[in-house]
């Protein structure tokens, strides 16, 4: 089934959906420009703007549901930026509204959580300003009805991410991590921008509608090239191989940031891009194949990295990579996978934000200690954090009837049907997930206390625990709600299309049982290693495999050898060429212009009579020229 | 019919904006004559600002009521779409410039006193000031309103003089650097009078050719009257001299740098924005209404003028060391870019309303940015008054980052960087020119823009990447008026750069109704 | 025969124009400009006769008034600079250049 036509819409909440973007942007502007005067109420304003944005999103969602499914793609035209080339418009359709609800809802909860988490930070106002800025930019990204708008949002979230990773810029590690994230993302953005140029050159339009129409019309379209370029952009933003290395370092940012940006929303923008560009990817098997391969490779790599990390946030970051790999895999399959990709994205947004915030709560109680080897037995002192984290844990490993069970299983089943090798690799990934997540939970909440002497763990305040509780409820029920009866697939189909034959949910399929069995093996093995046994306070040397995983699979070394070194050579070469060749040319040209300027300005003698002469001569020339032209 | 004189009919409603401005100017003269000295300023400022605001409201009212389709005042004045758009622009720019003028220490205490004499000392001591600047400015604004709206050449000549004469005086009234200021006034006056004599002689020849000075009748006579093409050619060329002089197009640009530099900065702002807008309005009207129907193509000459103007403006600006002078050359270059648009209106595409709307948009965008830039110049001062020399601006970014940032923003807008108003102005004009078949001209324009970008960026580099001079200028705390001017200019530059559509739309509507004949 | 008048007017205009270029005294320069305006007037009146309507003669009156206004302004400016510089030579006023 093809996506529906876009209907121009005005009035109602959808017509005013720009408010979703404008409100947090206003919040950011007030907080950044208002300076210290807004210190007192800054956090409250930030929360209010995020919540208000959610309310608008929810109302727009309700209005959207009022239309027949075929009429649920509503375009909202704001203004013509460059007549005939770039219109600024929004597209409110099932896909974008799903993202809006996720971003504003989880975003609001994380704003609220941050009131408690950042309570003692002197720069709390600035933090909320950046968070608001992020929400606004992310909404631009998903609401734009064209690639240019998407790019603006894409760079906007990149900026917000940079600012927030380096929020504690007094820490050199944070400053470096922020730069690394920015630079690695540049590589991806480079691909994206060239992809967008190619789109414009091919279709003479940047709107999704125009691209879809152009694809339908056919002709010679470099779909594979565009698809791969867009994928490069997606890899950068979503930390997929080979541009994954920044995400682990990004954990230097405050934990709410890791939860919102580097788990629930921003890093999933790549998946959004691939799904939104469906018409292009569906026309090219090669690009789709590459997307699925990237997805599978990343889901395994992320999982392996997750097994070896002792830093609780880095372990979670590895897991994020891995889960986005699942989404990417599904998004590469086509209409059959889109709904599962987005559904998993939403449930993952909930349970991963839940766990990140839980990790934040643990750190909050443990003097910002992140090393899991110094945790242990925390379930008794932090009961709410433990219960909510445990729910998130069950959801991610795919414990039956929780969110992850439905959405991840959907992806694995679809992948299995698409290509058995990919399917079995995805099953293997699920097993590893079971192991490393269990390891994390056992090391943190079970076993003996391995705390530092000065640690006095305690439960976090209500403003931090309530968001955890709400997120964990989502982690329990959302999967079933979305997947059972193909509810989400039908909802999404006007925006992205759907397979001819709707999938049906089989609780006891071979694949499902195999997945469960492997996960169970993983959990038991983790219990044997980390639950029942003593966990050493210092990490043992381990095998070369462990070392391999600890070094992020030598991702940095690889980057260094493959990108940085040749890059440095290239820049050196370019500098040499620039100095000798280009500069020589430019400088002599500049000298020429400068010299002629220096000489020409002598015409301006300062004598009024010579000015009058120039007028007189000019008039004579004008008269003569007119004669010549007139008599031609 | 013979022997009886028919009373002329005047459409007061259509002329109301001008009447308000001229009326307020006359009231200002009376205030000057009868009000005690200490009260004058307090009376002038509200009268001036209110009359400009009132005239603006009347202009808007006119637009809402429906743009007139026939010339007013017995065919002497044409209040049409472009006129109304230009009026609105001029009135807003004039309002903003008057806020700058309101900072009274720009003006000399007693113009008649010899600089440095005891007389001047005394006048300064008494706190005297030339409050005449307000009525003079109003007269000039009134002339600017009439200039682009005049539908016959005599009215246009009178408007030209009404606009210019007060400006000649205003140029000579700077409080500091009075020698330069007076020199600017003399130069501007002599050259202005010289060029308007050309304008008038052109008018006489066209009158001889067509038997009328009415633009529409001249247009009607084209092609009908035979055997007198000589009169037509010389007449049009000389008329062109007068108009191109006001625009500052090469080779008639020589006055601009000297006058812009010497004049009091608020007056420079008024001239660089208001006069330029008015002069382009008049130029378009003459070339469109009177000469639109020429069966021979006048655009090759304008091509040459446009190219020369862009090149001269951009190249000479590079080696300038005085900020006001540099902005003056930049204004010349921008005049050249606008002439590219004028060429497009007459090019193969015929009467191209797209080019017209592009010019109108460019004028608004450039007007606001230039007023803002000169407002910033008034704020950077040292012991001798405003610090004009560029070396004094070194390191300003470190001393007062906000002001330097704003100025850098204006410069980027001049250079036409995206997300500033300058980008869309240039884009619209160049696009219209390409559509009108003037691609080579656009290429020259783009190259000139690139050269121009160099000297804009050079100032930015100077402000932010040089070490401040030890005794560098200080930035004065702006008065409310100046701060408002800078604020309005920044907002307009941002707004037109991000949301150009409303103004572009307005300009398109104005251009659609075209110039009436 | 109106041609003679036109030729005279052109001559006067040219003399005025050349005068502006060659004379140094600001007052004389200004008088040359006035001469150019009067040349225009002559042309207007001539064309009025040639065209057989009165417009040109009326225009001449307007021009005279404008010229008078110009004199007022011009003399004010020239006198001011003369008082400052003790010289009415236009060549002395050349501080602003390049």
TrEMBL record, chain A:
Q: Which Gene3D superfamilies match?
A: 1.20.5.2700
- Extract the Pfam families matched here: Proton_antipo_M, Proton_antipo_N
Domain (NADH:quinone oxidoreductase/Mrp antiporter transmembrane) ranges: 144-433
Looking up NCBIfam families in the UniProt record yields:
NDH_I_L (TIGR01974), PRK06590.1 (NF005141)
The Gene Ontology CC terms held by the record are: endomembrane system; membrane
| Bilayer disposition of the protein | Multi-pass membrane protein
Q: What is this protein called?
A: NADH-quinone oxidoreductase subunit L
Tell me which species this is from.
Planotetraspora silvatica
Higher taxonomy: Bacteria, Bacillati, Actinomycetota, Actinomycetes, Streptosporangiales
Which residues belong to any copy of the NADH-Ubiquinone oxidoreductase (complex I) chain 5 N-terminal domain? 87-128
The coiled-coil regions, if any, are none
In which compartments does the protein localize?
Endomembrane system; Membrane
What's the chief localization of this chain?
membrane
Instruction: Provide the transmembrane region boundaries.
Output: 12-33, 45-68, 88-115, 127-144, 190-208, 220-239, 259-275, 287-306, 326-346, 381-401, 421-442, 463-485, 505-528, 611-629
TrEMBL record, chain B:
Which reaction equation describes what this protein catalyses?
Answer: a quinone + NADH + 5 H(+)(in) = a quinol + NAD(+) + 4 H(+)(out)
What's one GO-annotated cellular component? endomembrane system
Coiled coil stretches, renumbered:
none
Q: Which GO terms describe its molecular function?
A: NADH dehydrogenase (quinone) (non-electrogenic) activity; NADH dehydrogenase (ubiquinone) activity; quinone binding
The record's InterPro entries line, in alphabetical order, gives: NADH-Q_OxRdtase_suN/2, ND/Mrp_TM
Where is this protein chiefly located? membrane
Q: Which UniProt keywords apply?
A: Cell membrane, Membrane, NAD, Quinone, Translocase, Transmembrane, Transmembrane helix, Transport
Q: What is its EC number?
A: 7.1.1.-
Residue spans crossing the bilayer: 12-31, 43-64, 84-101, 133-149, 155-174, 186-210, 230-255, 267-288, 300-319, 326-349, 355-380, 401-421, 441-465, 477-499
Report the superkingdom from the record.
Answer: Bacteria
How does the annotation summarize its subunit structure? NDH-1 is composed of 14 different subunits. Subunits NuoA, H, J, K, L, M, N constitute the membrane sector of the complex.
Give the family from UniProt: Belongs to the complex I subunit 2 family.
Protein task: NDH-1 shuttles electrons from NADH, via FMN and iron-sulfur (Fe-S) centers, to quinones in the respiratory chain. The immediate electron acceptor for the enzyme in this species is believed to be a menaquinone. Couples the redox reaction to proton translocation (for every two electrons transferred, four hydrogen ions are translocated across the cytoplasmic membrane), and thus conserves the redox energy in a proton gradient.
This chain belongs to the protein called NADH-quinone oxidoreductase subunit N
Automatic annotation (TrEMBL), chain C:
> What are the TM regions of this chain, as residue ranges?
6-22, 27-47, 59-82
Keywords from UniProt, A to Z, are: Cell membrane, Membrane, NAD, Quinone, Translocase, Transmembrane, Transmembrane helix, Transport
What topology does the record note for this protein and the membrane? Multi-pass membrane protein
What broad class describes the main subcellular location of this protein? membrane
Q: Name one GO biological process term.
A: ATP synthesis coupled electron transport
This entry's Gene Ontology molecular function terms read:
NADH dehydrogenase (quinone) (non-electrogenic) activity; quinone binding
Listed EC numbers: 7.1.1.-
Q: Which GO terms describe its cellular component?
A: NADH dehydrogenase complex; plasma membrane
Q: Which reaction does it catalyse?
A: a quinone + NADH + 5 H(+)(in) = a quinol + NAD(+) + 4 H(+)(out)
Which enzyme type, at the first EC level? translocase
Similarity comment: Belongs to the complex I subunit 4L family.
Subunit structure, interactors included: NDH-1 is composed of 14 different subunits. Subunits NuoA, H, J, K, L, M, N constitute the membrane sector of the complex.
- Tell me the HAMAP family matching this sequence: NDH1_NuoK
> What function does this protein fulfil?
NDH-1 shuttles electrons from NADH, via FMN and iron-sulfur (Fe-S) centers, to quinones in the respiratory chain. The immediate electron acceptor for the enzyme in this species is believed to be a menaquinone. Couples the redox reaction to proton translocation (for every two electrons transferred, four hydrogen ions are translocated across the cytoplasmic membrane), and thus conserves the redox energy in a proton gradient.
PANTHER family documented for this protein: NADH DEHYDROGENASE SUBUNIT 4L-RELATED, NADH-UBIQUINONE OXIDOREDUCTASE SUBUNIT ND4L
Q: What is this protein called?
A: NADH-quinone oxidoreductase subunit K
Say which species the protein is native to. Planotetraspora mira
Gene from which this protein is expressed: nuoK
